Amino acid sequence: MNKLYETQRGMRRARKAAIQRGVIAVLDIGTSKIACFVLKFENNKSRNFEDNVGSMVGQADFRIIGVATTKSRGIKFGDIEIIRETERAIRTVVQAAQKMAGVRVDHVIACFSGGKPRSYGLAGNIRTENGMVNDRDIASVLDSCEIPDYGSSREALHAQPVNFTLDDKNGLIDPRGQIGKELLVDMHLLTVDINSIETILYCVKRCDLELAGIASSAYVAAVSSLVEDEQDIGAACVDIGGGSTGVSIFLKKHMIYGDYVRIGGDHITSDISHGLQIPTGLAERIKNVNGGLIATGMDNREMIQLGGETGDWEHDQRRVTRSELIGIIRPRVEEILEGVQEALVAAGFEFLPSQRIVLTGGTSQIPGLDQLASKILGQQVRMGKPLRVRGLPQAASGPAFSAIVGLSLFAAYPQDEWWDFDTLNKNYAEKSIRRMTKWLRDNW
Amino acid sequence: MQSLDKKNTDPTPSRIFYRWERLRLTPLFRLVIHYGIPIFLIGCIALFYFSKDENIEVLKVSWREFKENTKNRPEFLINFININGASQDLLNEIRLAIGLDLPISSYDVDLKELESKIELLKKVDNVDLHIAENIIYILVKSRKPAIYWLNDFGLEILDSNGISIETVESGRPNLELPLIAGTGASLVIDEAFFIYENSTVFLNEILGLVRIGERRWDIILKNDRKIMLPADGLERVYKYLMLEGKLETLLSSNFSVLDIRNPDRILVRQEIDPNEVVVETKLRSLEEEEI
C-alpha cells in the first residue's frame, strides 16, 4: 500500500509540474485503439469564445493541440499482453500527437480499461481534534477507513472520499471548516491488478515519458459523457469499448461503483468473422458499414457483398442479407447488455434516485443500440458523446473518444483522492511538536 | 492472395527516430537548428571568403564599377547650367568659378560647394542652386554698386553694405554714385550715406567725403572748401545746422574751412585775399634776406 501511495503522490507531483510547464499528454490505452491528446494549459485566464465553446466551469483553460490515434497492438481485454508491441503503438501515437502539436511532451496521464477493476465502499470515523474540521481531520478520517483485504496482487487505482458526515449532517462534500465532533467518511476504492499498472508504467517509461497519473477508463468516460445533473443525481455510464465494457455509477458527482464486462466490440467482429468465414479486417469493415441491431423487412432484401482474397472465386463472391448480419451481431450485444445489467444489479443501481443509463464508447455506435438497450436496461437510456472541449477536432468528437476526453478533463481537474492528503501515521515527530505548541498555547 | 512485395506497413518510428523527433521538438534544440546553425555556417563561409585579400579586392573593384555605372546613367547626367539674374560679365565669371566639365553626373556635383564658390565672387550677393531634370538652375542675386571708395590701392566700387564689388582701373564710370575716401571709410559707410542724404542743400557742391584718422569725416566741397565734421554726434550736428537755415547762412559766407568739430564753437576760416598773400610773401622774403 505504501509503495503505491508514494507512486500516486509522485504522479501527482509530476502532474503539477507538467501543468506548470503548460503541456501534458493524455493517453487512452484501449483494446482496439490507442489515442493520445496533447493538452496545452493556458495560464493567462483570458477566455475567448472561439469555436462556440463557452467558458464552462473547469474546462476552459486548456486546449487540445495534438491528436493522434492508432490501432492498438498487443492488448487483450484492456490489458497489455505483449509489452513490446504496445510500447511501439504508444510510441507511434505519442510521436504523431507531438508532431501535430509541435511541442515535446514529457508527462503523460494514462487510462486503461483492463486490470479487472473491482470497487469497494469503505467507511471510517474519527472524533475531530478541536471541534472544527481541518485538513488533518480529513486525512485521519481517511486513514481510519478499514481497508478490505483485496489481495496482494491488487492495488488501489482510485480512492475517493465520496461523502462526509459530521455528527448528524449527512451528504457533505467538503466538511472543512465546519464544527462538529464526530466525522464519518464514505470512500470509494477501485482496485485493479497490480500487474497492469506496472506494465503500463514500464511501457510509458520505455517511451521516455513520465507517467503523471493513471485512471480507469470507465471512470473518465463517465466524466466526459455524463452531464453535470446526471453525475449529481445518479447515473450509470456504460463504456462499450473494443475488448471490454466498463460500467461506472455516479452519484453526487463521485464515482460510487465501477465494474466491467469482459465483452466488447472485438467480440462482435470475431463473431462475424467466424460466422461468415471472412478475415477479421473485412468483418470489422462489414460491421461498421452494414452493422445493425434491429432487423426490418427491408434488411431481408439488402444483400451485402462479402468479398475476400482467398483465391476461391465462389467463396469470394458470397453475399449475405443484412438480416443475417444482424442475426450475428445482436446476440453478442444482448450478451454485453445483460452483463451490464448484472453489474448494475450487483451494484444496487435500482435503489438510486435516478435510473439514467448512458451508453458510450466506440461500439455504442451500432445503429439500433438505443432501442435494444432500453429493452434490456430500462427506459432511461441515452447515447452519450463526450462533451466538447476546446480544440477537439471533429474526427475525435465521437463516442469512441469519450474516455480520452474525460481523461483530459481529469488531467486538468482531478478529483481529490486519498493520496492528496498527508497521512498522519508517518510523521509522529511533527505531531509531537504540534502537541507541544498546543500545550504552550493553552497554558500560557 | 498475399502481396508479393512485403512492404513494412508498420508506422511505428524506431526508438532512435522517436528520440530524435523528441529532441527536435525541444525548444532550445529548435532554436539552434533554425537560427544557430545557419548563422554559424554563413559566418564560416564569409570568414573563409574574406580571409583572402584578392577576394576583398575583387569585391571592391566590382563595387566601384557598379557605382560608376550607376552614376553615369543618362538619368543622372547634367548637360546644361541655367544661370538667372546675372549680367553678362557676371555670367562669365560664374561659369569660370563653377568650372564643371559637362556632361557630369549629378552625384559628382556638390551643390553646397558650388554655392560657396559662387558666393566668393565679389559681385554676387547670394545664390540659390537646385538640380532638376539634368539641369543645374542657378539663381543669382548680384550686388548693386552704391558708392565709390578711393583708397590706397585705387578706386573701388562698394555696395550699400560697404562690401567691395570691383576695383575700377581708370576713371569713374558712373558719376551718379557718391565718393568717399580715406582708410576705414568702408567700415562706416552708413555715416557716409547719412551725410549725403542730409546734405541735399549743397549736394551739388560736394566733391566727396574723406575719412580723417579713421575717426571723423571731412566734406570736400568745390573751390577748395571743406567742412570738418565731428567724430560723433553727427545727427545732432545736422539737426542743429538745419535749424532756422543756419547752414545756409554758414555756407553763404565766404569760407575756406567750416569747422564744426565742436558744434558749440563753430569756426569759420575766411578765405585769404590773394593780395594779402602776395604782401605776406614779400614781407617774409625781406625778413629772410635780412637774416
Mean pLDDT of chain B: 80
Number of domains of chain A: 3
- Largest interface here, residues on each chain? A-B, 15 and 12 residues
Q: What is the architecture of the largest domain in chain A at the second tier of CATH?
A: 2-Layer Sandwich
Outline the biggest β-sheet of chain B.
9 strands, mixed
Q: Give the oligomer, counting copies of the same chain as homo and different chains as hetero.
A: heterodimer
Shape of chain A: globular
Q: In this structure, how is the largest beta sheet of chain A organized? A: 5 strands, mixed
Strand content of chain A: 25-35%
Poorly predicted runs of chain B are: none
Helix content of chain B: 25-40%
Overview of the molecule:
The complex is a heterodimer of chains A (444) and B (291). With 444 residues, chain A is α+β, with helices and mostly antiparallel strands. Chain A has helices at residues 2-21, 83-101, 135-143, 194-206, 217-225, 228-233, 265-276, 280-290, 297-301, 313-316, 322-347, 369-377, 402-412, 428-443; strands at 23-29, 33-41, 62-71, 75-76, 79-80, 107-112, 118-127, 154-166, 169-172, 182-193, 210-216, 235-240, 245-251, 254-261, 303-305, 319-321, 356-360, 381-383. Chain A folds into 3 domains: 1-119 and 193-226 and 387-444, ATPase, nucleotide binding domain (Nucleotidyltransferase, domain 5); 120-192, Dna Ligase, domain 1; 228-385, ATPase, nucleotide binding domain (Nucleotidyltransferase, domain 5). Chain A has 14 helices and 18 strands. Chain A has a 5-stranded mixed beta sheet with strand order 3-2-1-6-11, with helices on both faces. In chain A, strands 14-13-12-17-18 form a 5-stranded mixed beta sheet. In chain A, strands 7-10-8-9 form a 4-stranded antiparallel beta sheet. In chain A, a hairpin with a 2-residue loop joins strand 13 (245-251) and strand 14 (254-261). Residues 46-59 of chain A have low confidence and may be disordered. Among the domains of chain B are: 74-142, membrane protein fhac (Ubiquitin-like (UB roll)); 147-274, Rossmann fold (3-Layer(aba) Sandwich). Chain B has helices spanning 15-24, 27-50, 53-71, 88-98, 111-119, 189-198, 234-242, 246-252, 274-290, and strands at 77-78, 80-84, 104-105, 124-132, 135-142, 147-151, 154-158, 164-168, 179-181, 206-212, 216-221, 225-228, 255-259, 267-270. In chain B, the strands form 3 sheets. Chain B has a 9-stranded mixed beta sheet, with helices on one face. A 3-stranded mixed beta sheet of chain B has the order 2-5-4, covered by helices on one side. In chain B, a hairpin with a 3-residue loop joins strand 11 (216-221) and strand 12. Classes of the chains: A alpha+beta (444), B alpha/beta (291). At the A-B interface, helix 2 of A face helix 1 of B.
